[in-house]
Design a protein that fits this description.
With 210 residues, the protein is α+β, with helices and mostly antiparallel strands. The chain is 43% helix and 20% strand.
Length: 210
């Protein structure tokens, strides 16, 4: 194996690698980069997840894969939202087996060897409204606040909830959870989300939670 790739993989902190990372390493040597990657895939050192994105195999593999971080490398710009965000925040009780995100581009589902990833389109205006970056030593990703995830669900799934009770029943979110939530976040999204239908629904929920 090319010594440059071996050195890079020894020092690499993430469990995955992208073509743009390799392009820096093999600047101006596209043919050489292609041959090195092809050989590494054949030997199981790199595992192709999709075009331009590779998992790092033994003996260089480090750390555990974070599906949320992988989601943003697979398709972007995007952030974790909908059921995955609500589950992360403890708003819905069940585990989510498809990683759900929203994106500024067209909706898409990507099936991979490590799981399925679903992306739903939302308005590009105020795209990162009430989205936070979660970071630790192992990974980092963008995550919708709970009410932003609810707003995205109204928009992406065309929900017509008329009351908090409707929302609670459909999404299995406890009323008490919403009562104890950050109302300022709810009001902020209700003011600026780029959909009148979403704004109307969230404003109604805010009134019910007073």
């Amino acid at each position: 194996m090319d010594t440059r790739l071996g050195t890079l993989l020894q020092e690499w902190k993430k469990p995955f690698l992208r073509d743009q990372d390799l392009a820096i390493l093999f600047s101006g040597e596209d043919g050489k980069r292609y041959d090195v990657v092809k050989y590494a895939i054949k030997k199981g050192i790199l595992i192709r997840l999709q075009r331009g994105l590779y998992l790092i195999g033994p003996p260089y593999k480090k750390g555990e894969l974070d599906a949320f971080e992988i989601a943003q490398s697979l398709y972007g710009p995007s952030y974790i939202s909908l059921e995955s965000a609500l589950s992360f925040h403890g708003w819905i009780p069940e585990a989510v087996y498809v990683t759900t995100s929203v994106c500024a581009k067209r909706s898409k589902t990507i099936e991979t060897s490590i799981g399925n990833f679903r992306y739903a389109h939302t308005p590009s205006a105020h795209f990162f409204l009430n989205v936070e970056r979660i970071a630790n030593k192992e990974s980092s990703f963008l995550l919708a606040e709970p009410w932003k995830a609810v707003a995205d669900a109204i928009y992406c799934y065309r929900k017509t909830w008329k009351s908090i009770n409707d929302l609670s029943s459909d999404m299995r979110i406890e009323i008490e959870t919403m009562q104890q939530s950050n109302r300022d976040s709810l009001l902020h999204i209700a003011t600026y989300y780029d959909s009148s239908r979403v704004r109307t629904s969230l404003s109604r929920f805010a009134e019910e939670l007073q």
